[in-house]
Amino acid sequence: MKGPLFYSKILLFGEYGIIRDSKGLSIPYNFYNGALKLSDNQTKEATDSNASLKCFATYLEGLDKGLVTFNTSKLHSDLDEGMYFDSSIPQGYGVGSSGALVAAIYDKYASNKITVLENLTREKLLKLKAIFSDMESFFHGKSSGLDPLNSYLSLPILINSKDNIEATGIPSQKAEGKGAVFLIDSGIVGETAPMVSIFMESMKNEGFRSMLKDQFIKHTDACVDDFLKGDMKSLFKNTKQLSKVVLNNFKPMIPAQFHDLWKKGLDTNDYYLKLCGSGGGGYILGFTENIDKAREALKGQKLEVVYNF
User: Fold this and answer.
1) How many other C-beta atoms are found inside a 10 Å radius of the C-beta of residue 254?
2) Spatial distance between the Cα atoms of 126 and 156, rounded to a whole number of angstroms
3) Which of 120, 122, 146, 297 has its CA 20 to 30 A from that of 21?
């Protein structure tokens, strides 16, 4: 047995802001993927995954039956036969490793599931998001449900606000374009829960709350609008402002060895860095108008281009 593939995702804009109703834009990232598998040849990773899935299966039985029900007898019998999640998605990197797993389990075991092929009304999208939020909370303590939604639909998702999300189109890539969105591997595994608790603690501070509303969310929303319209000139202006706000106010979420590189990008305009997911490690997201310049300026760093302008 091998289930369908579910892909990783990148939240281009909206990290932390969507908790406070900013806009957000999440895109599938097909470089990494995962699938449910049954195989006789069990590695240590497979047995670890199987054990973790057994705990997850028990957790799913306790979810609100009014929202979602699962064929748990089939799930348990597949797990007893050694089913595991075979994934190339790095964990703790902000690219949705648990999201792809949640999408795969929902796809295979949910009763009366909402399928990708039907007319996805806003109500259906919000219901899926609520189901995925409850499911993924097993891994993160509190989840927005957006990562699994992105992985399940394999479509870009525009978050207008908590209760207003839609599948969207993004400008097509220019293969020869010099402008790029890229990932830098920080070489550190990030953990979502501690980063979110630092953020929630900061939210008790009135100065932080007003910075979030007047600067962080303002620039995040502008970046989403610019990107969707394909207005690159304005996008880079707003991304620079956003990068500056993050460096000044989200230092604990930026690995220490990247503080200087972050500032260097702002000083030279060769590239601008931002958080990818909750930060603390994993990937860092970069934007540049000239990928060759950015590669030169970031020599020694591992860069992966995810989108060309």
Assistant:
1) 21
2) 15
3) 120
